[in-house]
Specification:
The complex is a heterotrimer.
Chain A (H helix, E strand, L loop, with lengths): L1 H9 L2 H21 L3 H26 L3 H31 L13
Chain B lengths: L1 H19 L5 H22 L7 E9 L4 E7 L1 H20 L8 H20 L3 H22 L4 H29 L7 H6 L4 H18 L8 H8 L2 H26 L1 H27 L4 H21 L3 H32 L10 H4 L1 H14 L6 H16 L1 H26 L15 H19 L2 H25 L1
Antiparallel strand pairs in B: 1-2
Helix pairs in contact in B: 1-2, 1-4, 2-3, 2-4, 3-4, 3-10, 3-13, 3-19, 4-5, 4-10, 5-6, 5-10, 6-8, 6-9, 8-10, 8-11, 9-10, 9-12, 10-12, 10-13, 10-19, 11-12, 11-17, 12-13, 12-16, 12-17, 13-15, 13-16, 13-18, 13-19, 15-17, 15-18, 16-17, 16-18
Chain C lengths: L6 H15 L6 H28 L5 E11 L2 E9 L1 H24 L6 H20 L3 H19 L6 H32 L4 H9 L6 H17 L8 H4 L5 H10 L4 H8 L1 H5 L2 H22 L5 H21 L3 H28 L17 H15 L5 H16 L1 H26 L7 H6 L5 H16 L14 H6 L12 H28 L13 H7 L4 H47 L7 H22 L1
Antiparallel strand pairs in C: 1-2
Helix pairs in contact in C: 1-2, 1-4, 2-3, 2-4, 3-4, 3-10, 3-15, 3-20, 4-5, 5-6, 5-10, 6-8, 8-11, 8-13, 10-15, 11-15, 13-14, 13-18, 14-15, 14-17, 14-18, 15-16, 15-17, 15-20, 16-18, 16-20, 17-18, 18-22
Classes of the chains: A mainly alpha, B mainly alpha, C mainly alpha.
């Protein structure tokens, strides 16, 4: 086990940070630019996973398992969120025959 | 002893609760409650020792974590305002007897609820409690005006409510600031008195409190909500507003503003003085050409309050005593005036001066009562108005002779507009509208007799009332002057 | 006895309360009895106080009743001062007051407001007594404003006539202008001397130097107050209008008592005025101007009461002239004699008006001598007295003032004596127009003319006697008397003899007597021999007569200069400043808030992409901010 940890620690932390930053940005841009609710949803997952990756990386780097505990929490949360979110999207689809979020602009003024 | 104070504050609340569930007998229940409160007030007066101490003190922790206490007590200054409240409330209830208001139980319950709020304001020794009372008194009057008022009531009332709430907000900020500055972490008035704030801090505190009080009184130029509200409110609402509620502002200045921020007064006193005096002349002049009698009296009230404010800020024994006495007499007189106008309105359906005339011929009793009240409000010697106004003007004179020259113009102007109104409403020949005017009777007569007796009795022998507040005023002035001199 | 002085005002007050409460239930005769009875009791007490004071070596008694107002160092007790000055005023007020009450029983007999009238009169006497009895300025001020109130009530007694009600209001307001002066004077006295008690103020005043500016200001303010109450320029226009009241009121309030309150007040505080020579000079000038103006206007008036009213204004001017030149005793003497003869003249006029069934225009009178013999005889005495022929009372008092004026300034004396001639002329003009010649009314009205009942004629006779012989109390040394009044008042007002030689005094008297006789003769020729009638209202007059007839248009000028600008200012303040500016700012705050929210709410577009974009932009800017500020 120590070996694996040491091997993992051999990868510089900067790489992890850059990678997750890139994934996170992809997620953000996806959320900002796409109009399909499901794609936005996937982009959100992407952002969450970018954070997970970072948490895991730091956890290993610092020899502190509590970061990985957080990852599990986030995964559970994401699963729950997907369940609720998807059901909302399904309901929207049933009502509007579309998953385009620009249709949902009633909540204003 | 302290049970009396608890009784004083909670009796109106209990009365309000009972009244709310009594249906058509509400007015009698309310009157009984009002009279009981009056009795409590009189017992307190009888047991009160006229020195500077705070008596009947109640102090129980309320929200202990924040250092908030239910802390109330009575000294000479509060006693006068308590008497004013408890004398006027039964009179106002009685004055509403002839009206057929829809939902009378809510109407009278609200009056009693307001009384409780007012009494809290006048007895609170904890800033938080004071603020609670301050706002609690506003809510019932909002509903009284909004439900039973004239046809423009919603709009006018909105303005009144937002305006006064906005003012209170500044005061709340001031209170919170003082709380944060207070090392003892509580809202005790004595602790606030002891705070060592520098002149700039006190200047801010001064304005934060002054704006709240100035809107309530109202002092020029914060007065514009008042004429509309007085005109649109139902008679009882107008009486509550003008008779008691505006004294909250005056009382607040004396109890909170002066002792907490004397340095602010040092810097801004002359500004406030000028505003008050401008208000006196300005409002008197405007009253000259008013067509609606209620509006005329509303403006006259602004003028009177201007003198009261000026007297307080003159910061001497005469001005302060005059202000306190004038609170009492102005309350009585203005309630009387509005009551007379209400009698006329309920019979003639108009308060437009030009449409009336000659009422003295058909209603001689009303004419006499109206005249006595008018004389009181133009401060004829021998009436209550004179004692207050004389002391106030004496106080203002010692501050500045020009201030008294301008404030004193109200002596002339008051006579002009009041007698003009009296002449046009009561004297001359009757017209088709006023020919069938019925003279006062029953409860109307009773109310007017009480008011007229008070007008004259307080004017002829004011000493007991002046005596009640004298020691407290002396102490307050010493306290303020001490703070002022210690800085210099 | 002197300690019972509080009874003197209290009893009329009781009369007021009884008559006021019983005005509709008591019978007229009972009301009349109570109304005059209380005054008579007061009169009796006053007489005994007067006698007691005469025998008492101490000439000044303070009677403390109770503490009235106190705050800080200001202590105002309700207390009375009995001294020679106030005791003699008590006699005048209750004595003449009593006669006028009796007269009123007859005069007001048919009036519906009989009870109300008597209660008001009683109240007036109460306040007037308070005014003269007060031992400090504030008690005087109670009476001062109280008599103003009664004046208001009684001028507007027939309130259904709106012009009467207006006259009442005018009187009150003009008095109030003076009252403000009084109030400020009281404040100044209190701050300067620490008290407003006469007994504490006057000794301190006496130590000050003449010409002290504070003192001058106090004196000026007190004089303004006196101008209001005693109808001097510029505050005199209310007095002629005050004739709207019933005639006994004009006699009591607007001739004999209330209007002389200003003179009483100045005489009372003469120490103050002595040390303010500038103000004294002003008083003399104003007094003289008022005397002339009043006389000029009286020359052409046709309403019998208006003539008397302007004559009162003129005579009050005389008294002020006397005060101005330091002849306090002389002025006070004139107050007394004037109270006698002017009350008499008004009551006679009332008797004429009563007989003529409320006709007041002299152009419709004439030839009443035979029909009203008692009225005629008494009025003749009153007219001679006011014209100032010896040995009638007016001669002595007027002459005393004139002699002092001569001493002071001979030019002023010239004007004053000329005014005396005018007085003689217009008074006899009035007498001749009323009682001589032929009757000028309708025949129908002529038959109803009758002499007044005895309740009215007896007071006339008593007052006529007093007018005739009242001068006895002040016969100067030059005529062999020893001026009892000056001696009596000397504890209050130090007497100072005339510096004039006897020859000069004789000469002055001769000038005024001859002039007066000439003026009377001219009036006789003009109005009896030539029967020269005043023209009708629309008729043509010479420019000067027109000016006089229209009272120099002073009311109109005041209206233009004061009332209208104030009303315009009032409208401007209300419609522009209050509604548009002050309230505009308040409403503007509300308006701008709601407008701003109308604009800002558009950001809430409902576009989720936009929301998310804003959120991300917000987070990025926050991060940037923390990054940069590190």
């Amino acid at each position: 086990m120590d070996n694996i940890t040491q091997n993992l620690q051999g990868v510089p932390l900067n790489h992890y940070i850059w990678l997750s930053a890139i994934i996170f940005s992809i997620g953000v841009i996806g959320v900002l630019t796409r109009r399909n609710a499901i794609v936005i949803f996937m982009s959100v997952e992407l952002m969450l996973n970018a954070v997970n990756l970072l948490l895991a990386a730091f956890s290993v780097h610092n020899n502190d398992p509590s970061g990985q505990v957080f990852v599990f929490f986030i995964m559970v949360l994401a699963a729950a969120e997907v369940a609720v979110g998807l059901s909302i999207i399904v309901m929207i689809y049933r009502n509007t025959q579309s998953t385009d979020i620009n249709v949902l602009n009633r909540l204003k003024w | 002893m302290e049970q009396l104070l608890i009784l004083l504050i909670f009796l109106p609340l209990a009365g309000a609760l009972v009244t709310a569930f009594t249906g058509n007998a509400a007015k009698y229940v309310a009157l009984v409650s009002g009279l009981l409160s009056l009795a409590v007030g009189l017992i307190i007066t009888a047991q009160f020792v006229p020195d500077a101490s705070t008596q009947f003190e109640v102090n129980v922790p309320w929200i202990a974590d924040l250092g908030i206490h239910f802390h109330a007590g009575i000294d000479g200054i509060s006693l006068i305002t308590i008497l004013l409240t408890n004398v006027l409330i039964p009179i106002i209830i009685l004055a509403a007897f002839k009206h057929e208001y829809p939902k009378p139980q809510s109407f009278f319950a609200l009056i009693l609820f307001m009384q409780a709020g007012l009494l809290i304001v006048f007895t609170a020794l904890d800033a938080f409690l004071f603020y609670i009372g301050w706002e609690a008194a506003l809510i019932p009057i909002y509903f009284i005006c909004a439900i039973w008022g004239g046809k423009d009531r919603i709009k006018v009332n909105m303005k009144f409510f937002v305006y006064t709430i906005a003012g209170s907000l500044f005061m709340l900020l001031g209170i919170i600031y003082l709380y944060l500055q207070n090392p003892a972490d509580n809202f005790e008035i004595q602790a606030f008195y002891q705070l060592n704030l520098d002149a700039e801090q006190q200047g801010w505190i001064f304005w934060a409190f002054f704006i709240a009080f100035a809107i309530k009184m109202p002092v020029f130029p914060f007065h514009t909500w008042q004429p509309d509200t007085y005109t649109e409110a139902p008679a009882a609402g107008t009486m509550l507003l003008s008779g008691i509620m505006l004294k909250m502002g005056v009382y607040g200045v004396i109890r909170w503003l002066l002792p907490i921020a004397p340095l602010g007064l040092n810097d801004w006193g002359s500004t406030v003085m000028v505003l008050s005096v401008i208000g006196v002349v300005y409002a008197s002049l405007i009253a000259f050409t008013q067509r609606n009698a209620k509006r005329l009296v509303a403006y006259s009230s602004i003028a009177h309050v201007g003198i009261i404010a000026a007297g307080i800020f003159a910061l001497n024994a005469q001005g302060m005593q005059g202000a306190i006495f004038q609170m009492l007499s102005h309350g009585i007189n203005v309630v009387g005036l509005f009551f007379v106008l209400d009698i006329i309105f309920s019979r003639m359906k108009t308060n437009t001066i030009a449409e009336l005339g000659g009422i003295a011929k058909t209603a001689p009793k009303l004419a006499i009562a109206f005249l006595i009240i008018v004389l009181g409000s133009v401060a004829l010697p021998g009436t209550n108005g004179f004692v207050g106004e004389f002391l106030l003007l004496t106080g203002i004179y010692q501050y500045n002779i020009w201030a008294v020259v301008f404030a004193g113009l109200s002596v002339i102007f008051g006579a002009v507009y009041m007698f003009r109104m009296y002449q046009q409403i009561m004297l001359g020949e009757t017209n088709t509208l006023t020919a069938g005017f019925r003279d006062i009777q029953g409860s109307e007569q009773l109310v007017l007799v009480i008011i007229c007796v008070l007008v004259i009795a307080l004017g002829v022998y004011p000493k007991p009332f002046l005596h009640l507040s004298e020691a407290s005023v002396q102490q307050l002035l010493e306290q303020v002057n001490q703070k002022l001199t210690s800085v210099k | 006895m002197i300690n019972l002085v509080w009874l003197v005002p209290l009893i009329p007050l009781l009369g007021f309360v009884i008559n006021g409460l019983g005005r509709n239930t008591l019978s007229k005769s009972l009301i009349g009895f109570i109304g005059s009875g209380v005054i008579f009791i007061s009169f009796l007490i006053s007489v005994s106080i007067f006698l007691a004071l005469g025998n008492d070596p101490v000439k000044s008694h303070e009677i403390f009743l109770f503490d009235w107002i106190s705050a800080g160092t200001l202590q105002v007790p309700l207390s009375f001062l009995v001294d020679p000055l106030s005791s003699i005023m008590l006699l005048i007020i209750t004595g003449i007051g009593f006669l006028i009450h009796i007269y009123s029983i007859g005069y007001m007999h048919d009036d519906a407001g009989f009870g109300k009238f008597f209660s008001y009169l009683n109240l007036f006497i109460f306040f007037m007594l308070l005014l003269v009895l007060g031992s400090n300025y504030l008690v005087m001020f109670i009476g001062w404003e109280g008599v103003g109130l009664c004046s208001y009530l009684l001028i507007g007694f027939w309130y259904t006539n709106s012009s009467y009600a207006t006259a009442a209001k005018k009187a009150f307001v003009m008095n109030r202008i003076g009252d403000l002066g009084f109030l400020i004077a009281i404040f100044m006295i209190f701050t300067t001397f620490g008290s407003i008690e006469y007994a504490k103020v006057f000794p301190q005043v006496a130590e000050l130097m003449p010409g002290d500016s504070t003192l001058a200001l106090i004196a000026l303010l007190l004089f303004i107050a006196a101008c209001g109450k005693s109808a001097q320029i510029p505050l005199f226009t209310w007095l002629p209008d005050a004739m709207a009241g019933p005639t006994p009121v004009s006699a009591l309030i607007h001739a004999a008592t209330m209007v002389t309150a200003g003179i009483y007040m100045i005489a009372r505080s003469h120490i103050l005025f002595d040390l303010a020579p500038v103000v004294q000079h002003l008083i003399a000038i104003i007094g003289l101007a008022t005397a002339v103006l009043g006389a000029l206007v009286a020359l052409t008036q046709t309403d019998i009461k208006k003539v008397l009213a302007y004559s009162t204004v003129s005579q009050l001017g005389y008294m002020f002239l006397g005060l101005g030149v330091g002849a306090y005793t002389g002025s006070f003497f004139h107050v007394i004699t004037h109270a006698f003869f002017k009350a008499l003249l008004f009551l006679c006029a009332g008797s004429v008006i009563h007989a003529m069934h409320h006709e007041q225009d002299m152009r419709h009178m004439g030839g009443l001598r035979k029909k009203l013999p008692v009225t005629f005889a008494t009025m003749l005495i009153g007219t001679i007295a006011i014209a100032g022929l010896p040995p009638f009372s007016g001669f002595f008092s007027k002459d005393e003032i004139l002699a002092h004026v001569y001493e002071h300034n001979q030019f002023m004396w010239g004007i004053a004596v000329f005014t005396a001639f005018l007085t003689a002329f217009y008074m006899f003009r009035m007498l001749f127009l009323t009682f001589y010649g032929t009757y000028r009314g309708t025949h129908h009205a002529e038959e109803k003319i009758h002499e007044s009942p005895s309740s009215m004629t007896i007071p006339l006779i008593i007052l006529a006697v007093l007018s005739a012989v009242g001068g006895i109390i002040g016969i100067p040394e030059v005529l062999g008397g020893h001026h009892w009044l000056a001696g009596w008042l000397s504890p209050v007002i130090p007497a100072h003899g005339s510096a004039l030689s006897h020859v000069t005094e004789y000469m002055l008297m001769a000038v005024s007597v001859v002039g007066v006789i000439v003026a009377i003769a001219y009036a006789f020729v003009k109005y009896v021999k030539q029967s020269d009638l005043p023209v009708a209202d629309q008729g043509k007059r010479s420019a000067l007569a027109n000016l006089s007839y229209h009272k120099f248009y002073i009311d109109e000028v005041y209206d233009l200069l004061v009332r209208r600008p104030l009303d315009a200012l009032s409208r401007f303040f209300y419609k522009v400043v209050d509604t548009k500016i002050v309230d505009g700012i308040v409403n503007g705050l509300g308006w701008s808030t709601s407008e701003a929210s109308k604009g800002i709410r558009l950001l809430q577009s409902g576009n989720i992409g936009f929301y998310i974009f804003m959120m991300v932009a917000g987070i990025i800017s926050l991060l940037l901010y923390t990054y940069l500020s590190l």
